[in-house]
Write a structure and sequence with these properties.
single chain, alpha+beta, six-stranded mixed beta barrel, about 55% helix
C-alpha cells in the first residue's frame, strides 16, 4: 500500500516546474502517445470486428450456411432430398435455387450479373431481403418480375416497372447457328442489402422463371440449407452428409469464403501487433522521462534518504510517478476510443460533408456504412496491457532512484 507521504511526493514530482520543463515535455509526449495508442487500438479493433460481423451477417443472411448440390450437373431430385434433410435437428429452412450468370442490358448499357432464382416465400422469409426493399412491392415478385439492387438500377437507369433484357451464356440452336438466349424482364423490387457486391451484381428471380430461362425444368442448381444455430455447423453438416450420401455433395460457407475470412483474421492480428507498438514506444518515453527525473532529483532523493526514507519508499514514489502518466493516459485513451467507435458512422458522415470527399467507398470496402462493434473483452485486454507496460516502464528508473547513494549525491554540496 502507498503511504500518504509517498503519494504526496509523487504528485509533487508530476507537477511541472520551470526548472524541469524538458522532463515535463517528455512526460507530456509519453501521456499523449499512450492515450493515442490505446484510443487507436480500440477504434481499429472495433472497426475490424464490425467488418467481420457485418460481412458474416450479410453473407450468411443472403446465402445458406450449407449447400447441397449434384456433382453431375443440375439437381433433379431436389424435392426428395429436401424432404429427407429438412426434418434433421438444427435446420431452420431449405431453399431450392437456380443460380447462373447472365448479361443484363438496357438502353445500350450492359453489365454482367449473377441470377439467382428462388421461390417467393423463400425470398420473403429472408429477413435481410425483406427489410432491404427500397422500392416496389414484394407481392409483385412473380412471373417475369424480378428484384435488383439499387446500384445496378442506378447503373442501368432502371426504376420499378421498367423492362430490361437478360441474356444467358448458354445458346440455343437455330438454322443460323448458335444464338444466345435472351428474354425481357420487368423490375418489381429494388433493394439495398448494404453490400455493394449484391447491390450491383445480383438479380433475384422467381424460381419457375429461372428454371425456364436457364433450361432447367424440374431441376435446381443447389439446395441452400439455413441453420438455427450457425455455431452448430460441423455437427449438422455431418448429419446432412450421411443423409444424402451417394446422391449429392455438401459444402458450407467456410469452403466458399475460407481465404477471404482468413485474410481478415490475419489483417486483424497484424493491425493489433502494429498498433501495440505505439503503446510500447510511449512506454519507452516514460522510461526516458523517469530516468531524467531521477537524475534531476538526485539531490532531493539524497535528502529524503538522510531524513529516514527507505529504498522501498523511493522506489514506490518513482513507480507511482511514472505509472500515473501511463494509467491516466490509458483511461483517457480508452474513453476517447470508445466514444469514437460508438459514433464512427456519424463522424465519417461529418468529415465527408466537411471535406467534400468520399472517405468510405462502398464499392471498395463491400459495405455501404462504416461498422464498429466494441468487444468489451478486447477493450479490457488493451487497457490491461497498457497498464502493465506503464508499470513495467517505471521499474528500472525507480530501482535507480532507490539505489542512489546519499553520500555520493551530497558529496559536493
Amino acid at each position: 500500500m502507498l503511504s500518504t507521504f509517498e503519494r504526496m511526493v509523487a504528485w509533487r514530482y508530476l507537477r511541472s516546474k520551470k526548472a524541469e520543463g524538458f522532463v515535463s515535455v517528455i512526460a507530456g509526449f509519453s501521456f499523449t502517445g499512450i492515450m493515442l495508442g490505446v484510443a487507436t487500438l480500440i477504434i481499429v479493433m472495433s472497426v475490424m470486428n464490425g467488418f467481420r460481423a457485418e460481412l458474416f451477417g450479410r453473407i450468411l443472411g443472403l446465402n445458406g450456411h450449407m449447400n447441397i448440390y449434384s456433382q453431375n450437373g443440375p439437381l433433379f431430385d431436389y424435392a426428395y432430398l429436401k424432404d429427407r434433410v429438412e426434418p434433421l435437428e438444427g435446420i431452420d429452412m431449405i431453399v431450392p435455387m437456380v443460380e447462373s450468370q447472365g448479361l443484363i442490358s438496357n438502353r445500350g448499357t450492359a453489365s454482367g450479373v449473377l441470377v439467382r432464382g428462388v421461390q417467393w416465400k423463400d425470398f420473403v422469409n429472408r429477413e435481410i431481403l425483406r427489410e432491404s426493399v427500397q422500392q416496389g412491392d414484394l407481392a409483385d415478385f412473380q412471373g417475369t418480375n424480378v428484384a435488383i439492387g439499387n446500384k445496378l438500377a442506378e447503373k442501368l437507369a432502371l426504376r420499378v416497372g421498367d423492362k430490361f433484357t437478360l441474356t444467358s451464356p448458354s445458346c440455343k440452336s437455330t438454322p443460323f447457328g448458335c444464338v444466345p438466349r435472351s428474354r425481357s424482364y420487368s423490375v418489381a423490387v429494388i433493394y439495398d442489402v448494404g453490400m455493394y457486391e449484391y447491390n450491383s451484381g445480383f438479380i433475384f428471380m422467381p424460381l419457375e422463371s429461372a428454371q425456364k430461362f436457364f433450361q432447367m425444368d424440374g431441376a435446381v442448381t443447389a439446395l441452400e440449407v439455413f441453420l438455427k444455430d450457425p455455431d452448430d455447423l460441423d455437427r449438422i453438416r455431418k448429419a446432412v452428409e450421411l443423409t444424402v450420401e451417394g446422391q449429392a455433395a455438401v459444402f458450407d460457407w467456410r469452403d466458399l469464403n475460407k481465404s477471404f475470412f482468413n485474410a481478415l483474421q490475419v489483417e486483424r492480428n497484424v493491425m493489433f501487433l502494429i498498433l501495440t507498438l505505439i503503446i510500447l514506444v510511449a512506454a519507452f518515453n516514460i522510461i526516458s522521462s523517469m530516468i531524467m527525473l531521477v537524475k534531476d532529483k538526485g539531490h532531493d532523493i539524497a535528502i529524503l534518504r538522510t531524513m529516514g526514507a527507505s529504498r522501498g519508499n523511493m522506489m514506490r514514489i518513482f513507480m507511482l510517478t511514472g505509472a500515473s502518466i501511463g494509467i491516466i493516459g490509458t483511461l483517457v485513451g480508452a474513453a476517447l476510443g470508445i466514444t469514437f467507435a460508438l459514433n464512427i458512422e456519424s463522424i465519417r458522415q461529418f468529415l465527408e460533408g466537411l471535406t467534400g470527399t468520399e472517405l468510405f467507398a462502398d464499392e471498395i470496402y463491400f459495405l455501404s456504412q462504416l461498422p464498429a462493434v466494441i468487444d468489451w473483452g478486447e477493450v479490457m485486454a488493451v487497457i490491461g496491457m497498457a497498464f502493465g507496460l506503464s508499470v513495467l516502464a517505471t521499474v528500472y528508473p525507480a530501482w535507480r532512484a532507490a539505489r542512489l547513494d546519499p553520500v555520493e549525491a551530497l558529496r559536493y554540496e
